[in-house]
């Protein structure tokens, strides 16, 4: 089946007219640009085969990966095709494994997979829980995507695919840009049709930032909703599994598969709390009509209006506000005064946890081992190994974290940062209408479980900020569109020593500003999403808007995201 | 010079001759402390001793993983991806370990905390795969507590050692330095096993008090089943803090002595350390805060590291584990299920059965010893039963290197031996032989063995008289010397009769008959 045939064939059941018009001339003509939901429909109707989908993805990979650097490892095509054949067999027999049966997807390289090696240079004897869940629903892994080392970075090692795939190439600045970090490989792969969806991780914005830069959906669920078992830890109390897709519905579809209690993850939200959460009122439950948002209260935090914000992003934010207002939503200016401290708090807490989590990479059991350390010098068993093995940014954060945890500075840094984190959390709690389900059970976890659901409902209603609380907060994701490679500090691009020389010491700190809008959601553990909402008139690159809701209120988040998505 | 002085002095204190007072109540206060001043060298120096005891929890699986916690397995066989700190793994708290730690805390009158939390203690060492140990630094599972010592424990006076806190933590793997020269071998079987660390206040004043505190702790942990408490096997390990100061002046700088693996060495190390510190101070030197080891062969402590070179452990709240929240019902349930604790048990056994303290202590030194005794003692003479267990059974087991937990002789069997001896069916000597058979795996009762193998005691007076007569007639020379006044020959005659009857003759009857005949 050649491309033309396929497009004509598609036009019979696709409402999206653009697919037809892009035929042959546009790289988006590929089937691998379909949404997961659409592809699944076609598979079930046997109008397309999983083998075709897999082949399409591989052809995109072979065409663009060398330019985009989106993958660290590409699965052996025959292995993937075998699985596709099995999936097609199932479709023929009418036994469908799950909503992702036969769909090619990728994982960020910090997810443990038995089949392909994982970052930190080892082959895991087990699959991450989310990998198992997605495999059980029929997804086919076609590769592991590139990332900043251990998830530490805002630029990523991948190139932004927008220059290649955009339908308005003429108006786009052609200078190479970054895909963003740290899940940049995942965002680039999804944006360029190399896979249908990709699983990444988000510690301080690592899903949302590249999603905004590359023009795809980047969703970070509440902390504890998706199992971290098998996710290589960066900062355990902030790390969340995240999802990158081309539309909101796909993200929701995948989220419903992987949002399961996992007894292997001690921070996984236990079933009882999940049912308490489900019993709480939310906007999404009470509103049935997408065009009437008159009951919706949207929070606009004034502290997010920072001086670094670029004009195209400011105007896009304003457009988002007027859109929701036009549907009847009430726009409320809210205050999250601790926001300005969130960034420094993050850069104390995350490196502290990282310095601890990365202590296991000592070269004793596996991985790089320095010749220098093997000499009979008892004092230095690890120093050379770790100095040689880790990259510059990782070393910088390990040193920072080690310093803040030392006896002399712990009380001055770590304790304060934790206090700020609590403040950020309570800031959000006081802003949202919905109560935080975690606080409902605080201090009396056992006795709460014994209460009946009416009582829970009563308590939750008491705690609802009915009159002044908001259902969703809307902010920008990033202060700008995707940075140019030459302006970025990503260590993989910095191998070009000219770039490195131009950097002064403050550059590293300035780079951390990229996370300013995304970090609060990580500190508070609340769900957040980056929805592509427009193109910068200046450079032609995509811009995303960020939505955040109360802990556990993913459904309202998806609901409002779809409103933005349908009106971009 | 000083050495001989101090050691002789110590001997004296241990005999109790220099103890100034007796505490009668269990309350503790500074007043009591100062009353019990045990002074070294011209009544000038007082030693202040505190303990940190690590006890391995008796759980089937490790503290945060499902691999087996049993040791004595082939190296590196009980290791899961969690224990070996594979990337992407997460700890999962073992409820059994929490239960055992709570039981231990309650048994030590600790204040079990409804909310406690875990922290990472960070240092690099090859037998610590994650680069940190999960422990409870900032909010331990239990605060406070007491260990009482009194004459039941072998102390001449009463005292109480306060417990500062009890924390749950992971054990490390083992580094083995001496099997392959120039190489350190790592065994991760122990890595991640559950421990409780019991930290005492500096309430001990002599090595004897410290030794007895550890012994008491062992007895309590064994009684409630929280730990085997075996120092030789490493399931109980002690670090000790020692300082000396002049009486009625502030406490001195302390030194920590690490890795003491028996109570004997613990006491010896304390004694030599007290002696060393007094000597340093008397020579006008200062004590430097440091960690020391104990050289058993040289009977000396030696410097391991000073405070300046000490590791900064960079304690950090464990981000993977949420706080451990216990509810009151849970604690009450464990409290209600606690078995009889050693002090109560001792008192009860002594009172109920009238056996001496020493016997009770020997019985209690073996896990399940008292239970065994109580099973065997039903309708029998308690002292006899105790003797048979503590002397004969324990002796035989020890000689054959069999642990009491593997004792093949049932309480019923042991009771049957006591019965047969007490009712005169067999001699004690034959009883011992039967017990040996039982240890070798004979599962019959003593009465059956006697019957099957014809071991019944010879108590027929006529038959015995005949044998005695024969012996006398066959040995005219000995008879003559007896008549000549040599009383010791009498015992020789008894021996001859016993020999002839292969030990089965009733010795009491033989004595009577020989007296009559001679």
Short description:
Chain B: Subunit of the heterotrimeric GatCAB amidotransferase (AdT) complex, composed of A, B and C subunits. The complex is a heterodimer of chains A (568) and B (518). By secondary structure, chain A is of the alpha/beta class.
Question: How are the elements arranged and paired?
Answer:
The complex is a heterodimer of chains A (568) and B (518).
Chain A lengths: L2 H9 L5 H5 L14 H9 L5 H19 L2 E4 L2 H17 L10 E5 L20 H8 L3 E6 L16 H4 L18 H8 L5 E6 L5 H7 L2 E4 L19 E6 L2 H11 L12 H9 L3 H4 L10 E5 L9 H16 L3 E5 L4 H19 L13 H4 L8 H7 L2 H14 L4 H22 L5 H4 L4 H6 L2 H11 L8 E5 L20 H5 L3 H7 L7 H6 L3 E8 L6 E7 L5 H13 L2
Parallel strand pairs in A: 2-3, 2-4, 7-8, 7-9
Antiparallel strand pairs in A: 1-3, 4-6, 5-6, 5-10, 9-11, 10-11
Helix pairs in contact in A: 4-5, 8-9, 14-17, 14-18
Chain B lengths: L1 H14 L14 H6 L3 E2 H4 E12 L38 H13 L3 E2 L2 E2 L2 E4 L9 E4 L6 E2 L2 E4 L9 E12 L3 E3 L8 E3 L6 E7 L6 H18 L11 E11 L8 E6 L2 H20 L7 E6 L4 E7 L9 E2 L6 E2 L2 H9 L5 H12 L3 H9 L3 H8 L5 H18 L11 H12 L5 H12 L6 H8 L7 H14 L1 H8 L5 H12 L6 H11 L1
Parallel strand pairs in B: 14-15
Antiparallel strand pairs in B: 1-2, 2-12, 2-13, 3-7, 4-18, 5-6, 5-17, 7-9, 8-9, 9-12, 10-11, 13-14, 15-16
């Amino acid at each position: 089946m050649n491309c033309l045939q396929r497009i004509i064939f598609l036009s019979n059941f696709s409402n999206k007219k653009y697919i037809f018009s892009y035929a042959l001339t546009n790289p988006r003509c590929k089937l691998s640009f379909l949404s997961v939901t659409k592809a699944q429909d076609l598979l079930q109707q046997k109008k397309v085969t999983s083998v075709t989908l897999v082949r399409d993805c591989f052809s995109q990979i072979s065409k663009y990966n060398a330019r985009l650097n989106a993958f660290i490892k590409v699965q052996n095509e025959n292995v993937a095709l075998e699985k596709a054949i099995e999936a097609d067999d199932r479709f023929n027999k009418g036994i469908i494994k799950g909503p992702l049966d036969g769909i090619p997807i990728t994982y960020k390289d910090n997810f443990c997979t038995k089949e392909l090696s994982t970052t930190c240079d080892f082959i895991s004897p087990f699959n991450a829980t989310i990998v198992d869940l997605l495999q059980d629903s029929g997804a086919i892994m076609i590769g592991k995507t590139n990332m900043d080392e251990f998830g530490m970075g805002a630029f990523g090692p991948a190139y932004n695919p927008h220059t290649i795939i955009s339908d308005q190439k003429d108006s786009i600045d052609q200078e190479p840009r970054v895909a963003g970090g740290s899940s940049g490989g995942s965002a680039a792969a999804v944006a360029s049709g190399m896979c249908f969806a990709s699983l990444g991780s988000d510690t301080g914005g690592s899903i949302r930032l590249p999603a905004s830069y590359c023009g795809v959906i980047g969703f970070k669920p509440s902390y504890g909703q998706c199992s971290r078992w098998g996710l290589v830890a960066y900062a355990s109390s902030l790390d969340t599994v995240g999802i990158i897709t081309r539309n909101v519905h796909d993200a929701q579809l995948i989220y419903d598969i992987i949002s399961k209690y996992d007894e292997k993850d001690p921070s996984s939200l236990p079933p009882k709390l999940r049912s308490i959460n489900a019993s709480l009122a939310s906007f999404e439950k009470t509103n049935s009509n997408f065009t009437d948002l008159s009951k919706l209260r949207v929070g606009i935090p004034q502290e997010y209006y920072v001086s670094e914000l670029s004009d195209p992003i400011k105007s896009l934010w304003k457009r988002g506000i007027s859109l929701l207002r036009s549907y009847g939503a009430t726009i409320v200016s809210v205050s999250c005064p601790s926001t300005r401290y969130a960034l420094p708090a993050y850069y104390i807490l995350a490196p502290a946890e990282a310095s601890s989590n990365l202590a296991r990479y000592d070269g004793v059991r596996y991985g790089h081992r320095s010749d220098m350390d093997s000499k009979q010098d008892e004092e230095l068993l690890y120093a050379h190994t770790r100095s040689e093995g880790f990259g510059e940014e990782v070393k910088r954060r390990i040193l920072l974290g080690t310093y803040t945890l030392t006896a002399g500075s712990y009380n001055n840094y770590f304790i304060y940062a934790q206090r700020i984190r609590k403040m950020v959390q309570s800031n959000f709690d006081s802003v949202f209408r919905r109560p935080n389900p975690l606080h409902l059970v605080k201090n009396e976890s056992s006795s709460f479980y014994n209460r009946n659901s009416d009582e829970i409902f009563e308590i939750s209603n008491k705690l609802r900020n009915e009159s002044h609380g908001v259902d969703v907060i809307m902010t920008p994701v990033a202060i700008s569109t995707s940075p140019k490679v030459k302006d970025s500090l990503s260590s993989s691009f910095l191998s070009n020593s000219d770039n490195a020389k131009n950097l002064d010491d403050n550059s590293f700190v300035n780079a951390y500003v990229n996370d300013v809008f995304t970090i609060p959601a990580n500190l508070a553990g609340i769900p957040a999403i980056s929805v592509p909402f427009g193109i910068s008139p200046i450079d032609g690159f995509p811009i995303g808007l960020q939505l955040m809701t109360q802990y556990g209120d993913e459904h309202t988040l998806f609901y409002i995201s779809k409103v933005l998505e349908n009106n971009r | 010079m000083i050495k001989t002085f101090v050691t002789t002095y110590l001997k004296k204190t241990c005999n109790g001759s220099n103890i100034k007072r007796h505490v009668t109540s269990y309350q503790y206060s500074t007043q009591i402390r100062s009353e019990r001043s045990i002074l070294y060298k011209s009544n000038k120096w007082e030693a202040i001793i505190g303990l940190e005891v690590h006890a391995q929890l008796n759980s089937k699986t490790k503290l945060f993983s499902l691999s087996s916690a049993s040791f004595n397995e082939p190296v590196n066989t009980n290791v899961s991806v969690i224990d070996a700190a594979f990337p992407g793994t997460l700890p999962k708290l073992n409820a059994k370990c929490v239960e055992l730690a709570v039981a231990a805390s309650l048994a030590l009158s600790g204040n079990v905390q409804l909310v406690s939390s875990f922290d990472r203690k960070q240092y690099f060492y090859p037998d610590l795969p994650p680069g940190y140990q999960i422990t409870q630094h900032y909010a331990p599972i239990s605060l406070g507590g007491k260990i009482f010592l009194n004459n039941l424990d072998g102390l001449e006076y009463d005292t109480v050692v306060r417990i500062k806190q009890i924390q749950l933590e992971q054990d490390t793997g083992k580094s083995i330095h001496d099997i392959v020269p120039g190489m350190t071998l790592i065994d991760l079987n122990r890595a991640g096993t559950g421990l409780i660390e019991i930290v005492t206040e500096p309430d001990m004043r002599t090595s004897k008090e410290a030794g007895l505190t550890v012994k008491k702790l062992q007895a309590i942990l064994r009684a409630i089943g929280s730990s085997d408490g075996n120092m030789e096997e490493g399931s109980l390990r002690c670090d000790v803090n020692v300082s000396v100061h002049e009486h009625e002046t502030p406490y001195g700088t302390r030194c920590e002595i690490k890795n003491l693996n028996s109570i004997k060495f613990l006491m010896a190390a304390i004694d030599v350390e007290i002696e060393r510190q007094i000597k340093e101070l008397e020579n006008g030197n200062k004590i430097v805060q440091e960690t020391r080891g104990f050289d058993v062969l040289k009977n000396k402590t030696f410097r391991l590291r000073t405070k300046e070179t000490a590791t900064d452990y960079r304690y950090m709240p464990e981000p993977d584990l949420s706080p451990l929240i216990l509810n009151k019902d849970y604690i009450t349930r464990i409290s209600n299920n606690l078995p009889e604790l050693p002090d109560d048990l001792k008192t009860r056994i002594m009172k109920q059965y009238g056996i001496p303290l020493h016997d009770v202590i020997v019985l209690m030194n073996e896990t399940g010893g008292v239970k065994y005794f109580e099973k065997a003692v039903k309708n029998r003479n308690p002292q006899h039963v105790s003797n048979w267990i503590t002397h004969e059974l324990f002796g035989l087991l020890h000689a054959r290197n069999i642990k009491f937990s593997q004792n093949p002789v049932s309480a019923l069997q042991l009771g049957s031996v006591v019965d047969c001896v007490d009712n005169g069916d067999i001699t004690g000597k034959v009883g011992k032989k039967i017990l040996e058979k039982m240890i070798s795996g004979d599962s019959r009762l003593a009465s059956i063995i006697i019957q099957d193998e014809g071991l019944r005691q010879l108590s027929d007076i006529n038959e015995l008289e005949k044998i005695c007569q024969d012996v006398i007639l066959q040995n005219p020379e000995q008879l003559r010397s007896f008549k000549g006044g040599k009383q010791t020959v009498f015992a020789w005659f008894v021996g001859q009769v016993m020999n002839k009857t292969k030990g089965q003759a009733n010795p009491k009857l033989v004595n009577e008959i020989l007296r009559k005949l001679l």
